[in-house]
Amino acid sequence: MSSPATATGFPVVDPSVHAAWLPDAALAPLGSRRVAVVVPDGGAPDVVAQTVRDEVAAATAAHGGAVVDPQQAGTADVVLAVRASTGAPAGAPAGSAAADPEAFTLTRALGMVTVTATTSHGLLHGLFHLVRLGEHAFTDPDGTWTHAPTTALRMLDHWDNVAVHPVMGQVERGYSGGSIFYDDGQVRADLTRVAQYSRLLAASGINRVAINNVNVGPRESLLLTDDLDEVARIAAAFRPYGIRTHLSVSWASPVRLGGLTTSDPLDEDVRAWWRAAADRVWATIPDFGGFVVKADSEGQPGPFAYGRSHADGANMLAAAVAPHGGLVHWRAFVYDHTQDWRDRKTDRARAAYDHFAPHDGEFADNVIVQIKHGPLDFQVREAVSPAIAALPRTRLAAEFQVTTEYLGHQKHAVYLGRMWSELLRFPYWGEGSATMADVAAGRHPESDGTGGDGTRAGGFAAVSNVGDDVFWTGHPFAQANLYAWGRLTWDPTLDPIGILDEWVSLTFPGADPRVRETVHAVLDESWETYERYTAPLGVCFMVKPHTHYGPDPDGYEYSPWGTYHFADRDGVGVDRTRATGTGFTGQYPAPWRDVYESLETVPDELLLFFHHVPYGHVLRSGKTVIQHVYDTHFEGLERVHAAVEAWQAAADAFPPDVAERVTERFAEQVRSATDWRDVVNTYFFRKSGIPDAAGRTIY
Asked: Which of UniProt's keywords are assigned here (predicted)?
């Protein structure tokens, strides 16, 4: 295998690795036609434009089409063209198609398909749009369509460690093997897989990647200094597909790496150290994206040690990277992880709002405050984070998790597209109002001076689920989550089941119809299935500490990490009301602050997230809480068995390697779901003393 650094053209593909949603056959509709690529010669080499040419050349060579000389573009079936912009119309909002360098327009007329863009990046996205459409790109009715991303920042954060961590391993919260970037404490010599990965990401819509763990260890700190040339090699593998590289950095770097005695953000020597570090990074990697920072969180150092705010800390870094057009992604995952479980007023869910809302408007324009979609930690069901709505004068990124830390470790078949879609569409100010996706795109209704016009756009970030496994994601079906993340960051209004259908069409082109039917039977409602056999009604965690896999209802109940459900003989749930609880409901804007406050209006699925209630409390379904727990856990396992039956009936229609791996994973899912059913049901039976009305076996 050749390294991307020495390869003469793209795509660079390792045939021993699963092709995911870009198998050779997926490019057949395009590759079987006559295609012209028209890109003006701008003088400086345009590596992304060359990627478009190489993709077209490879596809046509494989499928019998032809590359048409740009001068003869009028004779082609397909024309891919960069055309100079005449400028966005006066008053065109930021992020609109007219102003977006990644936008493209597809026109189908008189037997010819034309994709135009003002940049090669837009043209690359247009190329992959044709691939997604398949034959429909050429046979559907004539018309013109313009596509532009909702936001310019669509990011994946890799929690990869250069040196294998003694507890967390090579990839923290990774369930797909080792790192595609690092091996044996070094950046890999052969980065073919990184180049192949960049192609997959570009085809789904991702345009930025952070390449190391936010928990930056001593070895990982050196990526900023000694190993910067190695980071440049990784950036070179991403660059041809329009993807910019970011680094997670330690707040303590001036002490760890620079020999200073302090990391105080107001200390001039510290500020000078970071300016010099930024100058060195951008001199080595001119299109470098910026820094990701986890500070004052779970033992990571931060500005609190010096009596400074997070705005002080973020702005110091922002000043260092601003001359280079760089960004600082500052994570808002800051909370007390040494709290006393006896204290019912200290509430981890409040933390992001309490730490960051008072500093709204203080962060520099090139700081992106990155806030988890929920106030806790990527649970199967938790309320949306109120902090996302509370900073109208701050650029925000909504943070998600593609890796299934709390949803089955990619051993369970769980498609997250529907979950993410529900969260991204959440209307923070009531039905029809601005959504989580709107806020991330800079359309906060309370933005001062901008009217929420996208000027203060942030974006989307998520923890990657990729490793060096042959299938990339451990479970072949977990590829659908990675694909869906890219597609939803490009357009959060897309139908998540439609996205799943796209993934099936691309990953298994020309397959037996049973393949599509089976994937939908297994994955369409798999998120709800997983919820049924795990933590009920907005109760969070209930997992084994540290690994976060498998049932342990009291695993964190007396822990300093602050993740309690307070189950006792009388009831269960966390009182987060203003009237009698932690006051968390007061962090939401109207109407949700009152919807969640009241037992009469709180949604059943979040009941125990906001309220402590008796086991006999009656839900809107007419069932009591305890009977709901029993019924859903039996039903959840039954749904897993039904998915297995659907799989077994059609496994022979899938490629043998996929069939073998999925069959193996289903065996573990059945075992684990059975464990969840029995442990959770028995736990609540022993707490409540109330038997199952259906008389089923509870141990």
From this structure: Hydrolase
